[in-house]
């Protein structure tokens, strides 16, 4: 039997750091890194829970692949938006209003 206290605690720490990065930072790149930490916490939970059961289909691992794919697409779109924001305003601070 695998003990899940370690992966659960690590996922909680990752999700907490990611939430802090999203809520406390105003830089778009740092907020994006926070979102990625939250998604990695979800991936860790999916893989650790999927490894416990005797599921022959490995639903946790398959869902993790979907989350990784969606996260990669999200990073591409978000970085394109951040690059356009930087070209338009010269910085990526999200608290400053657009003129």
Structural class by sheet pairing and helices: mainly alpha
Terminal CA distance reads 59 Å
Mean pLDDT across every amino acid position? 89
Q: Characterize the main sheet.
A: none
How would you characterize the overall build of this protein?
With 99 residues, this protein is mainly α. The protein has a domain at 27-89. The chain is 77% helix and 0% strand. The protein contains 3 helices and no strands. Helix 2 runs antiparallel to helix 3 (59-89). The chain is elongated, with a radius of gyration of 17 Å. The model has no long low-confidence stretch (mean pLDDT 89). It is found in: Cell membrane; Membrane. It catalyses: a quinone + NADH + 5 H(+)(in) = a quinol + NAD(+) + 4 H(+)(out). NDH-1 is composed of 14 different subunits. Subunits NuoA, H, J, K, L, M, N constitute the membrane sector of the complex.
